[in-house]
Amino acid sequence: MNQNTYWRENLKLLKILLVIWFCVSFGFGIILVDWLDQFTFFGFKLGFWFAQQGSIYVFVILIFIYSWRMNILDKKYNKDNHSPK
Amino acid sequence: MSTQELTYIFVGLSFALYILIAIASRVKSTKDFYVAGSGVNPVVNGMATAADWMSAASFLSMAGIIAFLGRDGSVYLMGWTGGYVLLALLLAPYLRKFGKYTVPDFIGTRYYSRVARVVAVVCLIFVSFTYVAGQMRGVGIVFSRFLEVDINTGVIVGMAIVFIYAVLGGMKGITYTQVAQYCVLIFAYLVPAIFISIMITGNPIPQLGLGTASAEGTSVLTKLDNILQDLGFSPYTSGVKSSIDVFAITAALMFGTAGLPHVLVRFFTVPKVADARKSAGYALVFIAILYTTAPAVASFARLNIIDTLHDVPYSDTPAWVNNWENTGLIAWLDKNDDGIIQYGPGSAFSPPKPIFTDKKGDHGQRLIENKPSETSNNEIYIDRDIIVLANPEIAGLPGWVIALVAAGGVAAALSTAAGLLLVISSAISHDLLKKTFMPKISDRQELLYARISSAIAICVAGLFGIYPPAFVAQVVAFAFGLAASSLFPALLMGIFSEKITKEGAIAGMLTGLIFTFSYIVYFKFVFPEHNSHDYWLFGISPEGIGLIGMILNFFVAKVVSNFSKKPPESVISLIKSLRNP
Fold first, then answer.
1. Fewest Cβ atoms nearer than 10 Å: which of B54, B140, B245, B344?
2. For an interface test with A, which of B43, B58, B78 has the most A Cβ atoms less than 10 Å from its Cβ?
3. pLDDT for res B473
4. Would you list the domain boundaries of chain A?
5. Interface-testing mutation among A59, A65, A69, A80, with chain B (most B C-beta atoms within 10 A)
6. Is B579 in CB contact (< 8 Å) with chain A?
7. B168 located within any domain
8. Is A63:B88 a contact under the CB 8 Å cutoff?
9. Which domain holds residue B92?
10. For the packed helices B478-496 and B114-146, what is the interaxial angle rounded to 10 degrees?
11. What pLDDT score was predicted for residue A59?
């Protein structure tokens, strides 16, 4: 029971983060790139910025959010106190 | 001191450092050899992963490709970083929990089948060898240009260094040399980028300099767009490739990155599951430092090249043009006999790569056999691989910066080559010998076989570098498509689905691999004249076809699993334990 809710919460977190992952790269950097280019951001066209800079920064943030949230989840379900052999 | 002497000193010092580290981290057990005893600090592992991952392609070629492709070059930037999100969220923590040495090991155990293990070994060897050949070429280019030795000598020196620390130290030796190599390569990449950013934009941070408006009120990108349009190119910040192709290539690179064995195995080396997650984050930070600088380097270089070459008499060009011409990576064909270089869209001559004769032209340029192309006014051929190496020279930076870049290029190539050679050798000694054909060998014997196969793999890789098969350069990018269509789905389904059976996984991997491989071979080697948008399936180029191969893999695995006998109880409990850190 405990194990199942832990896994479900993990999957929920994965879904949210992967939707963001898809939006910033495939969404903003590829599909919507021409439309976003009408806006400027720090001197860049916005779509171009996402394609060559922004998406990479978001990727980094996503991994650290995952790591942080999972550590909290591990604690909640008492999973952080042994290292696998 | 001359640039060449400085280069000898820098490259020599870096080699001495790698060997010292190797001697300090010799190993005695297979666990140390395969996964560094699973005792690597996550931040250290992140740095080693970054060096492992950033190859000669990232260091030497990527900025050059982006410089010439403009926005379409984003496929490499997003594709080669976005895969880390998949890696960190979907694979690394679970593979760390599994913990047993290799990627085929996981596939063989999860799919309770020797056949699945051997199929995974075949995929791994194919992916890793195409990749390693490219690294050796990178070492060769650096040596031939900066140390003015024969390419073969360069390859042999590179092999000898990798031999020492990979055979002696296994994963432990490789890990700590990769940390040193990361420091060398990132410093070598950033120093010229920062100098050039200050010179062109006044902003020391290249990532910001790219967008900063200069004194004339326009940013580098706007200026580049205008100049390129004046010369007849399409603007730098808009794309030429179709959206679907850009989408497919980016996806194939991302999923391929997440399925690359030499990257995955790095996450077996940290102590805990939580460390694997954190480590992937640090790895991407260290990678992103280079990957966000690359687009800036690319546009600065493109601007500088046009400034130095276009409408400039050949006799007035700086010395670097001549140096690179001597290595055969720059060629000039004076089509209108005016002694002045004209730069524009299209290939200057056909075939597009220069074939040099022994003769010199009126202006001292090397003459070529190629026919001038009628449709283009362009007169100059510039190999994309030289952009990063030539960048400091183009910008007129001092000799020590150039020497540093040479050492960085060698570090990038060697660190990746070592990582690849290790997964090849452990797949042979552990998966083929110990787990399949010679199960009775002891730990000590297995370690000996691991060292022998690593030595053989280095020699084969060296041969690829000395006698590069014509197809190598073309195939490297396809290693990703193959990894995406074969290994990635098998790993993902192995963790997230209890229903996939061994029959399903084997059928899926083979479908993905064979489909992707045939599509690439068909368009690249059988009918290269058909390799255009009109003939492609759904308008997807061979570079991006791994995405379709991957979808086929998932589909076939699912269908076949429905018609085969359920996985045994022991596998179900293995999956449960993977999900429980």
1. B344
2. B78
3. 52
4. 2-76
5. A59
6. yes
7. yes
8. yes
9. 3-304+396-578
10. 140
11. 92
